[in-house]
Every structure is written in structure tokens, then in C-alpha cells.
Amino acid sequence: MAGAVDTSSIVALLTALVRMPSRGGVDACAPIADCVEAWFGARHVPTRRLVSASGEPLGVYVEIRGAPNGPGNGHHYLLNATLDTASFGDESTWTHPPLGAHIENGWLYGRGSADSKAAVAIFAHLAAAFARCTDAFAGTLGVLFDLDEHTGRFGGARAFFDAADAPRPDGVLIGYPGIGRIVVGARGFARARLVVRGIAAHSGSGSTRGLNAAIRGAHLAKALSDAALPDDGTFGRPAQLTITGIRSGDGTFTSVPDRCELSVDCRLTPGFDAAHAQRLVSSIVRAHDARYDASLATSIEWMAGWPAYRVDDAHPLAAALFDAASGELGDEPGIELPRAVAGPSNIGNYLASLGVPALCGFGVRCEGIHAADERIELASIAPVYRVYERALLALLEPKPARA
Fold first, then answer.
1. Would you state the pLDDT for residue 403?
2. Which of 69-78, 139-148, 290-299, 307-316 has the lowest mean pLDDT?
3. Residues in Cβ contact with 265 at an 8 Å cutoff, skipping those fewer than 6 apart
4. Is the same domain home to 178 and 324?
5. Which residues are CB-contacts of 254 (< 8 A; sequence separation ≥ 6)?
6. Is residue 1 part of a domain?
7. How confident is the model at residue 106 (pLDDT cuts 50, 70, 90)?
């Protein structure tokens, strides 16, 4: 099945996708879903649209079954990429318009070009190629494009995997960009809102100074930030605790604030899981509160998060992608293809919570993700396509029938 990569066609689809605004939670999703479905329709590949309860599009799914599909040939692998994007930010800081899909010096500029419309264009072409050659592989190849990823809701993936009759693939390959490494896992997260209390007073009063919740909150924030976290060197990423917000007062200059709210983000590893994070934060809060009256105790509200995960290097999914990438890119200077763990959490954490192994990063060479001048190197499209093609053919290789 392997042959010349039709890079010009991939770039044409990528250009069309970049020129369609699809900012998560901002732009209507139907036009870009229509575009993808029309592209597949022109190639006689059926699609299924995933929608919300109100009928809003959440994703586009394609499924291709190989032949034969006999005993031992029932493997199911899924390609996943997102069609929605981050916001533009300050457009005056862009060299080229965010929706321009401008090409300069071998790079295509535009919001979502890297994250992750290049992967969508590559995966769409892979799906079309596999649909033309179903006798070359066994099992099932699924392709899922999420229209609700950058909102943090992962609406397309949830609509697919949370359905009562949802399949559980043997593995998922997520097309997040980056050609220099294979991302086999990610830190998880746990988040909390802390409300620190004080006693209100007039800021100009000479008789009572109250108890300034903003100062209390700042001291607690410092104690949390200075907390020692366990070293989990075998995982590949350290645990982190970050104060991401401090809010207090009503904006006036005449009141001592009686409330301060802290936002706490904990990045989890196997050695620093959600339970450990909750115990640590609670113990620091208790030590802080011990200096004050019990009526002023700090409240803690924990929000649902995800655990850390890492796919074993020997798993067929990881081994196939590593072998394919090494075979395709092993001689390129500067590319070592380490197996790495991502710092930010991603849809792979959600899939891991379902028991579905996922690799969450191998794709085109890029710069400026979520920033001005997001762009991808066009020369990296063909090798990335070939790596995924080789990996999928290895994973879906027909097994000989037993005598």
C-alpha cells in the first residue's frame, strides 16, 4: 500500500481547514465539520457526525474495516486529532493573519495549523488510502476528529467513548504535533479552590484593623508554593503545585477584605497522585489555620481531575510507532525519538481513565502553538504520514489462518 505521499493534496486540505475559523467555544463548528465530511464524501468514504443533545456537532468519525476479519484479526486502532483551535490572541502580534494559511520559506502559518489541523489532514488522507486498500490490512481503523477539544470538554471524544455501545480500541494514536519525540504519557492534574477568611474593617479606621484575608491568602499561597513534592524520577516528569489565581477585595480602597480565593493546580505523577495532593494541601491549610479562630477556617473545594498515565514501551502501540519512526527518521540529524511524558494533561488522560492506551504526541514539526505565528514545516508532512502508515500496517497486519 505504501507509495508516494500526496503532499500537495494534504496541504490543500490543511489550507482549507486553517482558513475556516474554529476557535473552541467561540466559532460555529458546523462549517468545518461540513468541510471534512465533503472531503470524505468526494472520495466515497462514509462519515458519521457526533452531535450533542441539542444537535450541535461535536465530532466526525470514520471507520474502515479491513479484510479478512477472521479469528485473530480483530484489532481496532483509532487515529484522533482536533479540529477546533485555541483563540487568536492579539492579532496585531501575528506576522501573517491567523486564518491566512500563508506559506513562507517552507512553513505554513495559521491558527490550528499545528494543533492539530495538520494531523487532521494527514489522518484524513491515511483513512482514504486505507479505504482504497482494505485487503492490505485486517481489523478496524477508526478516525475521530474532535470539534470540542480546546474547550477542555473533549466533547467529540466523550460523545464517542461514552456511548452505551462504544467500542474500546486496542489503542489510540493522537496527532498532537512534534516530530522529535514520541509522547507515551502525561501528567495528570487535581485542582482546588481555597477560600481564606478574614474580618472586614474600614481601611482608614484607627480603632480596629480587622483581619486582612488578602494577607492571609498570600501567606498561604507562599506556604503551598514552597511545599516539597516527592521525586518521581522514573516517570519522566516531576510533580508540580502552582498557585494560578489569587482574588480578594471588591476593587475599592476603603475596605479590609474578609475573603480571599486561591486557585491551586497540582500536576500529578504516579508517586504524587490525587490523594497525595489532597493530603498535602489539607495539611498545609490546617497548619496555616491553627493560628486563627476556628470560625475563620479555610474551605477547600476539589474539582474532578485525571490521573497520570504512561503507556509501557513494550506495548504494541508504542513499539509500532517507535519502530516506524525509527525506520523513517532514524538517520535524520537531531532526531533521537525518545519516549517522553508530556507536562500538560490531554485527551490521553481521559482515554487512560477508560482503560484505553493512547500515545499523545507525534506529528509535524511546528512552532508557536497557542501563540502568535503558529506554523508547521511543510517538509515534515510526508515523513509523518509515512510513519503513521507504517505503524498502522504493522498493527493491523493480517494473521495467517490456522490450519
1. 47
2. 69-78
3. 189, 191, 240, 241, 242, 244
4. yes
5. 202, 203, 204
6. no
7. very high
The residue from 270, 290, 305 where one domain ends is 305
| Closest listed residue to residue 256, CA positions, set 220, 202, 208 | 202
- pTM of the predicted model as reported, rounded to 2 decimal places: 0.88
Residues 11 and 139 in one domain: yes
Higher pLDDT, 154 or 331: 154
Domains in the chain, number: 2
Same domain for 211 and 246?
Answer: yes
Q: Is the pLDDT of residue 211 over 90?
A: yes
Rg for the chain, CA atoms, rounded: 25
Closest CA to 115 of 34, 174, 173: 174
The rounded distance, in Å, linking the Cα atoms of 396 and 318 is 14
Retrieve residue 139's grid coordinates. 481489523
pLDDT above 70 for 235:
yes
**Euclidean distance between CA atoms 348 and 209, whole angstroms:** 51
SS3 (DSSP) at 176: coil
- The amino acid sitting at 65 is R
Is the domain of 14 the same as that of 145?
Answer: yes
Q: Is residue 402 part of a domain?
A: no
- How far is C-alpha 57 from the geometric centre of its chain's CA atoms? 19
Say if residues 288 and 299 touch (Cβ distance below 8 Å).
no
> What's the CA dihedral at 111, 117, 118, 119 to 10 degrees?
140
C-alpha to C-alpha distance for 335 and 346, rounded to whole angstroms: 24
Q: Are strands 339-342 and 182-186 parallel, antiparallel or unpaired?
A: parallel
Of 258, 274, 305, which marks where a domain is finished?
305
Q: Is the pLDDT of residue 217 over 50?
A: yes
What are the b/e assignments for 265-295, b being 16+ CB within 10 Å? bbbbbbbbbbebbeebbeebbeebbeebeee
Domain carrying residue 290: 189-305
Instruction: Say what the alpha-carbon torsion angle 380, 180, 307, 277 is, to the nearest 10 degrees.
Output: -130
At residue 333, does pLDDT exceed 70?
no
Predicted pLDDT of residue 2: 67
Whether 403 is covered by a domain: the verdict is no
End-to-end CA distance of the chain: give it in Å, rounded.
27
CATH assignment of the domain containing 236? 3.30.70.360
pLDDT bin (cut points 50, 70, 90) of residue 178 is very high
The answer on pLDDT for 339 being more than 70 is: yes
